[in-house]
Amino acid sequence: SEHLQQARIPSGSQDKVSVPDSGPEMADSQVAVAPVVMSKLSVKAPEFYPSGYNQNFNQNFADSSFEDGYDGYLTLAEYVQDFLNHLTEQPGCFETEIEQFAETLNGWVTADEILQELVELVYQQATSVPNFSYMGARLCNYLSHHLTISPQSGNFRQLLLQRCQTEYENRDEAAKGDETTRKQFHAFVLFLAELYLNLEIKGTKGQVMRAEILQEGLQELLNVLFSNPVDNNLICAVKLLKLTGSVLEDAWKEKGKNDMEEMIQRIENVVLDANCSRDVKHMLLKLVELRSSNWGRVHGNSPHREATPENDPNYFMNEPTFYTSDGVPFTAADPDYQEKYQELLERDDFFPDCEENGTDLSGPGDQYFDDLDDKMDPEIEEAYEKFCLESEHKRKQ
């Protein structure tokens, strides 16, 4: 009792603890009531933001106001570029923020020159930022249907296709250019492929169609890439066909054309004659195998089977994407994959004491890498030789 009488109540609390004056028996029967501490936190306190969080950006998109100069944005380029960067870092926000973004543009884009600037900003982001081509194509499709301005020079979709046409006309020079020029060209090719898959055009009867001009353009781009069979051109062609091959073949078949068969025959000729790396030839063969399985498409009534190298021709095609120290993406399809991947392991110390398939990945000189450098797997080598003989026989016939 004496102890409880001397206890102090924390400041801010109005509660008191009553202590009985009776003897020990009475004290044992009482339950001590814990003091109530009043919080000093206020519901009007500002929100907490972790370090590095860009509060101004989300504030701008949360309260878009045309009268206020678009919440501090002075130019269209600043506003659009900020949103594109945000979309690149957080692609999941597309569905929740695209409507407000389009509404803001409708209040800002009121002249031909501004619409041209918007098209150029989106095009540059889609062809210069790795892995943004898909999101860029989705963005272009949405804006083509929701931007209200339609000047005499053309609406958003028409100006976008005109911008692509400018790049398309330089295809022959770009495919023969230096490494930097080809890299930019390949980014354009893959963006055009995404546009073909995502850009929706309404027909005269209200039906949704794909842009016919893009289908013809992709076919010509494939011809250009195979006509200049250096490694990175062929890799780009494989990526393009993996992305659009099934859709292109279906579209050609609807017209009664057999263009995909001709494309596959051209790939087989490249494998036999082109002076490309062994890894790229192997990738081309896998693409032919993928097409022979109807591009890996499985019918709904087919029983589920776990994918294996034996029953899934696409098994080795879906390689993960890694990034070099400079941020350049690469996959197992790249000819210098082994060198880049080993550099990645050494730089970030991935799997320091682990083994893959029972083989130590400690660095060059081990059995795994030596086998890759010296010769192909016997089964693969046998299959490759058989394919070459059969193709040569077909060509002579």
Automatic annotation (TrEMBL):
Positions of the UniProt region annotated as Disordered: 1-26, 353-373
Source domain of life: Eukaryota
Annotated signal sequence range: none
Ranges for domain MIF4G: 77-294
A GO MF label: translation activator activity
GO CC list: cytoplasm
Subcellular localization, as worded in the UniProt entry: Cytoplasm
Any one biological process term the GO annotation gives: regulation of translational initiation
Keyword tags: Cytoplasm, Translation regulation
Protein name as annotated: Polyadenylate-binding protein-interacting protein 1
